[in-house]
Amino acid sequence: MTLLVIDLGSSSVRTLLFDDGARLIEGAICSRKHDFETDHDGKAEANADHLRALTEACLDDMLTHPAAKSITAVGMASFAGNWLGVDANGRACTPVLTYADTRGRSAITGLTGKLGGAPDAYHQATGCFIHPAYFPAQYAFMKEAHPQSLRQIRRISDMGGYLYRQWFGRGAPISYSLASWSGMLATERTSWHAGFVRQLLGDELLERLPDLRDFDACQIGLTDHYAERWPQLSSAPFFLALGDGAVANLGSGAVDARHIALTIGTTSALRVVTREGTLPDGLWRYLVCRGMPLVGGATSEGGNVYQWAVEELGLDRASLDAHLRAARPDQHRLTVLPLIAGERSPGWQADASGTIHGIRRSTSKLDIMQAQLEAVAIRLSMIFDQLKSEGSAVIAGGGALGSSPAWPQMIADAFNAPIQLLAEDEITARGVALLLRNRLDGTALDADPPRISRVLQPNPEHAPIYEAARARQVDLYQRLYG
Fold it and tell me: Where are the alpha helices (DSSP H) in 262-405?
C-alpha cells in the first residue's frame, strides 16, 4: 500500500508518499513555496489557479518516484479556514480568502447585532466565533467591498474542492472537517446551520453552499486530460480535503482525550479530541471527521513572531539561541502582546495588534526577542489551562519549534508541565496517511505511535516567574481591549 498525500500549507504546497505503516518513504517529498498576498489593511488571500499550478507541478514530480507506481489512494490536508467563489463555468471568480485575512473586522459589529445579543448560542452550535478569521465576517466584507465578484458566484468551495472540480470535471463536496472551520456548520448534526446562515448572511448564500460529506466520500475518475497526465492516479480514490490542524493531531498521536497536541508552525494551536458537550469560553470545536470532535484554541502567533523578530531586528540565529539558553526568564521586564497577525484564541479581539511595553535605554534587541518568544509561550499557557485534565500529556511538534532549541523549554516552564517533543517531521501529512489507512483497512489510529525525541521537564523555579509575567500580560490586554 502506497499513500499519496497532498499538503496545501500556508507557506508551501507539498506532495508526499507514505508506506503501509504510514511511514514517509525516503526521498518522497516534493515542494513549492508560496505566500499569501497581504497588505496593511489586513488582506491575506491566495490565487486559486496559482495554488493549482503549484500542486499539479508537485504531483508531476512525485509521480516520477519509484514508489508512485503502486499508489492505493490519495488524501489531502489544506490550511483550514479557506474559501473561494466558483462561477457557472467552474472557474474561480474570487481570490481564496484565508483564516489570516482580518478585513472582515469591519463587519463584526453588524453581525454580532444580528445574533440578537446571544453569541453564546452561536458559539455552542457552530463551535466558532463572530470573528474575521471565519467565513461570515469575510463574506460580509466581500459583499460590501467587492459586490461584483460575489454576483458571479454559483458555488462556494474550499481549495481542495476547487482542485477536484478541475481534475474530475464535476463539483465536489466539502468535508465535515473543513466545513467545521467556516462558522456555519452545526457540528453535532453535521449539516449547514440554515438558521444562522440566514440570520447572518441571507437566503441567497444557502443556495451557494457546497454539499457536505465525510472525508471518505472519494472522487474517482480523472478527466481524460489528467488521466493521461497522471496514469498512476487514473483509477485511484481521492479522499476529500481535511483541515490541517485536525490531522496534525492524529499525526502527533493525540487521538484521545488523554493527549493534548501542541503545534507551532507559522501560527500555533493546542487541541484535544474530546466529546465534552459544553464548549469552554474562548475555545473552538472543529471536526476531524464525523464523530470525532476536536476542541482547542489557535493563536495567530507562532513561528511568524520568531521570523519577524529575527528579520526586523537583524539578529544572528547562532548567537541568539546561546543568549536564550543562558537568560533568566523575564529578566528584560518587558510586557508583550505578540499579536502581530491579530488575535484568535483566547480573546478573539477583532482589532488586536502587537504591543511591547516597558522599553528602556537598557533594553536590547535580544531582550525584545526573548520577550516575544516568552509572550507566545504565555499566550499558549492560557489555552492549555482550559484543556488540561488530570494526567493529560502534551505532545509538541511543528517546524517552528526547531527555530530555537530554547523555545520549547520556555513553553514547558510557562505550562508548568512536561512536554514530549516529537521526532516526526511531517505530522500533518502523517495524520492524513493514518486516517486513510484506517478507512482502507481498519488499522487503529493509535496502532503506530509517533517517535518522541525527548521529554522536557518544567523548571519549578521558573513557574512563578511566568505566572507573574502572565499577570502583567493579562493586565496590559485588559487595559487595551477590556
Answer: 303-313, 317-326, 365-387
Rounded to an integer, what distance in angstroms lies between the CA atom of residue 289 and that of residue 242?
A: 8
- Cα(first)–Cα(last) distance of the chain, in Å? 55
Contacts 24+ apart (CB under 8 A), 61-66: 61/15, 61/30, 62/4, 62/15, 62/16, 62/17, 62/28, 62/30, 63/230, 63/232, 63/233, 65/17, 65/25, 65/27, 65/28
Contact call for residues 249 and 211 (beta carbons, < 8 A):
no
Residue 243 burial (CB count, 10 A): 28
pLDDT in tens, 197-237: 999 999 989 999 999 999 999 999 999 999 999 999 999 99
Using CA atoms, how far apart are residues 192 and 213, in angstroms rounded to an integer? 11
Q: Which helix (H) or strand (E) holds 265?
A: none
What are the pLDDT digits (tens) for 236-259?
A: 999 999 999 899 999 999 999 999
436-461 burial: b if 16+ Cβ within 10 Å, else e:
bbbbbeebebeebebeeeeebebeee
Q: Which amino acid, one-letter code, is at 420?
A: Q
Burial label for 340, CB within 10 Å (0-12, 13-18, 19+), is middle
Residue whose entry in the numeric block shows the C-alpha cell 490586554: 477
Q: How far is CA 405 from CA 16, 90, 318, 327, 368, in A?
A: 27, 47, 11, 13, 18
